[in-house]
Amino acid sequence: MSRIQANLVLLLAAAIWGGGFVAQSQAMEWLGPNWFNALRFALATVAVLPFALREAGSTGKPLALRDYGWFLLVGLSLLAAQTLQQIGIQSTSVTNASFLTGLYVVLVPVIAVAFLQRRPHWIIWPAALLTVIGILLLNGGSLSTLGEGDILVILCAIFIAIQITLTPIAVRISERPLALATVQFTVCAGGAGLAAGALEPISTGAIVSALPEILYAGLLSSGVAFVLQIIGQRYTTAPQAAIFLSSEALFGALFGAILLAETLPSIGYAGCGLIFAAMLLVELVPEWTRRRTAVA
Which residue pairs from 208-212 have beta carbons closer than 8 angstroms and sit at least 24 positions apart in sequence? Predict the structure, then answer.
């Protein structure tokens, strides 16, 4: 897969996640956040498991204990992120949640520099800044006083940045992306299920009422989009992946406006333009630099 193809795969994952903000918000009318996460990730595990078994049969390489250790770290990062986001979205708007979640676009390069001692291409920094400004403009140019839900979603962004950073490391070591997806979904389903059983009520009627949202979040937002993320990140860098995945804010605001009648302010369209410009920069500038170096 070329880098351009990988980034388009990540863009598709972002679009699916954008719609997932609406599903997550609507599901809270019937289910607690932990039960919703437990059910969606259990469904995602079942959906991905057959493909992971096929992958295991084709590679013939057994997973080592070290591989499972990395998978567990990725899964715990995702569990923390999704728990914080799902609780936070109960007391903030879809647009605010999508903006604040998008803060990971800045955090990923910072983690790469601070902990992995990797210097990303210089264009990542202005592109990340453009993306954050664009996401902010999607929210009207300013945020109201941060509430509890907003703070939880900010914490969610930190753990998403960790998950994005750890994912390519785990895939490179194990060479088993679908195994990673299955394990991280299992960790999320198990962790959320334990919390749900201890803290939240549940009924068959509630599950039936929230079934469309569970199916979307389980099969598409989790089963499809996270697998697309894992596959796409094999062929691009973590900072570039963060730029493309952050466009979920654009899609989240769009779906929020269409399906929940949340208003996108006029200045929000400028935000869309900035996000698109950042995506073009992170895609085209490194390629232009490589070609110029090769010619020289």
Answer: 209/29, 209/30, 210/26, 210/27, 210/29, 210/30, 210/31, 210/36, 212/23
| Local confidence pLDDT in tens for the 296 residues of the chain | 788 888 899 999 999 988 888 898 899 999 999 999 999 999 999 999 998 999 988 887 789 999 999 999 999 999 999 999 999 998 888 877 887 888 887 888 888 877 777 777 888 888 888 888 888 887 677 666 567 888 899 899 999 999 989 998 999 999 898 999 999 999 999 999 999 999 999 999 999 999 999 999 989 988 788 788 888 888 887 777 878 887 887 888 888 888 888 776 788 878 878 888 887 788 778 878 877 877 76
- pTM tops 0.85, yes or no: no
Residue type, 214: I
Measured CA to CA, the distance from residue 292 to residue 252 in angstroms comes to 37
Classify the C-alpha dihedral 286-292-295-296 as positive or negative.
negative
State the DSSP code for 6.
H
- C-alpha closest to that of 265 among 139, 134, 145, 95: 139
